[in-house]
Amino acid sequence: MALPKNPKVDLKLKYKRAFEISLILALALLIVSFKYFPRFESKSMGVEVPQELVAVEDVDITKQETAPPPPPKPPIPIEAPSDDELEDIEIENTDIDMEEVVAPPPPPVAEEEEIPVEFFVAVEEMPEPIGGIAAIQQKIIYPEIAKRAGVQGRVYVKAFVDESGNVQKADVIKGIGAGCDEAAVAAVIEN
Predict the structure, then answer these.
(1) Is pLDDT above 90 for 25?
(2) At what angle do helices 132-139 and 180-190 cross, to 10 degrees?
């Protein structure tokens, strides 16, 4: 339990009064000093400094030189065969005999024309692969290279399905590389 302070010995009660008295004394001192000492005269100190003349020169505009191109990269060294291998090679005569009779080239082989397959874009009922998308997802084998490289994403494949549900043709529209495109096409075609 704290004892109450005696107001006769409490110094904090007199702080406000002491501040007001000191403020009144300071203002009175300022008023008196301006009343009896209204002007302060100052002596001017003159220092003469000789004037410096600065000559202005015209500077010609210079053109910045362009940096020379970097030197070309050195050629990649190619391993030359050893002298042992060179001794075994026989060089035949390469002179051209102008009087030699040369057989004409064989006639071009006629290629069989493939019958273009028609794909319908607008049909009443869109065909689906056998087993649906779930069967394709089960057959996808994630390539080991893509796992090690941390390649992730989606591969968009366009597939043409016949009326019985077999995939006739599959093309990658948008791929991510690292073997994932080929794995997606293989999974679609296997179905």
Answers:
(1) yes
(2) 130
